[in-house]
Amino acid sequence: MKDYWQNYIDGAWVDGGAGRVDIINPGTGETLAQQALADEADIDRAVQAARRVHLSGVLTDMRPVERGRMVQAMGRYLLDNRDAVAELLTLEQGKPLWEAQKEIDGAARYFEYYGNQAETLEGRSIPLGAGYFDFTHYEPYGVSAQIIPWNFPLEMTSRSLSAGLATGNACVIKTPELTPLSQYIFCEAAEAVGFPAGAVNIMCGWGHQAGAALSGHPDINQVVFTGSVKTGIAIATAAAQNVVPCVLELGGKSAAIVHDDADLDAFERDIRFGIFTNAGQVCSAMSRVLVHESRHDEVIDRAVKIARSVSVGPGIERTEAGPTMGPMVSEAQRDRAAGMVADAEGQGATVATGGRKMNIPGAFLEPTVLSNVTPDMTIAQEEVFGPVLSVMPFRDEAQAIEIANGTQYGLVGGVFTRDLDRATRAARALRAGQIFVNEWFAGGVETPFGGYGRSGYGREKGREALLNYVQTKNVAIRTRA
Ligand code: NAD
Q1: What domain of life (predicted)?
Q2: Selecting from 2.30.110.10, 3.40.50.1370, 3.40.1010.10, 3.40.605.10, what CATH number does the domain 4-250 have?
Q3: Which residue's C-alpha comes closest to atom 20 of ligand 1?
Q4: Annotated catalytic, 249?
């Protein structure tokens, strides 16, 4: 483990104008290493480097298949370094080692998918009658600014970087202050596959300083952000000053509707992965379960059983896939989640299991299940971003939909039933960008993902996402009659 990690601007590893920050291992509470912090001048240099690359035409003039091959090769580079990167990710972020390995696989998959898509973005020809030939084509925006959260730092960077490069943009990435170390792999990968200096710039910095400087920079052409609603609003406001489009992915309070005919044996797996993956720090986590009143007690019992079966401890010791959980990303996030559980109790919820900070070093919170939650409680309305499941009963289908739709969010939703009519009715009625039927997290890199309401706008993943990174140009040609 190196004890100091630099930023990467215009093809060079550099110190940061804002000094350094200690990176803490949330599994032990100890300092892992230091990371350079970019200031406004560093951000400006990175944006100018990216802009130079864009204006040079080196990315845009390339035949798309060649760009696509380079993007794919970046994914293979990640896989070639899977073990080292996964270990680093676990140490800085906390997740079990096997989850970190899965994250590398997921990260590489974005490069595979968008590398493949590079040559599929085609324009169309529009008939204008005799004497004209008209066609459209897609051009990259130019400089893509990408601001990354700490929960899945490698997958989130891969998601936007792969699509940004595949479409011919030069990218400037602001990594999260809590988990910046493993991002080094993207800089190495970009260099190894032959992207020119300045095409990929990756730096850490404070959100209010480097993040704000990047999202408000007059020479960026597009912004992609994943994180909190508050920061999303700040970024969209800054971008609006420069008339720059945004993609915002801002989290959720997503609900699974469990009907009386649901297969509860299968649903146990959804509880396990829906809320305890990555210690619940997942924007599309299954943080609410709405269950028909006839099965309510049974679901509580099963959720408590699952929560108690999860082995919690330092992620680095959790190498095998299974019911394991690491710490949360930081003590501050853990304390915030524990505080929300205590407030919920104060408002009348019952802690069926868990709810306490664990009495070991590190940022651990017990896997938690809450019952007697009502839809108006803060815990039922606001994102905890931790391993905390709220279970609520419903009387009938209409009430279930009303509760599910009754928050400011709308990222994903789920319905569990053997009745296809019920499932399709729910899929239509739920106000969310992605609906799961009988399996939470069903889908993949191929399926478009993004929110309704305060969960944000624009779509990541799938073909849709490519359109975030390009603009349409129409060419009308007057021909001889
Ligand atoms: P955040 O939204 O503040 O941070 C995410 C990223 O935005 C970081 O890289 C940060 O440096 C940057 N940032 C912060 N302020 C900025 C600004 N003014 N301008 C530009 N960039 C800025 O999230 P957080 O404080 O790390 O976590 C708080 C809460 O956000 C969590 O508890 C959770 O509810 C939510 N969150 C959601 C996701 C998600 O995937 N949807 C991810 C992380 C956090």
Answers
A1: Bacteria
A2: 3.40.605.10
A3: 211
A4: yes
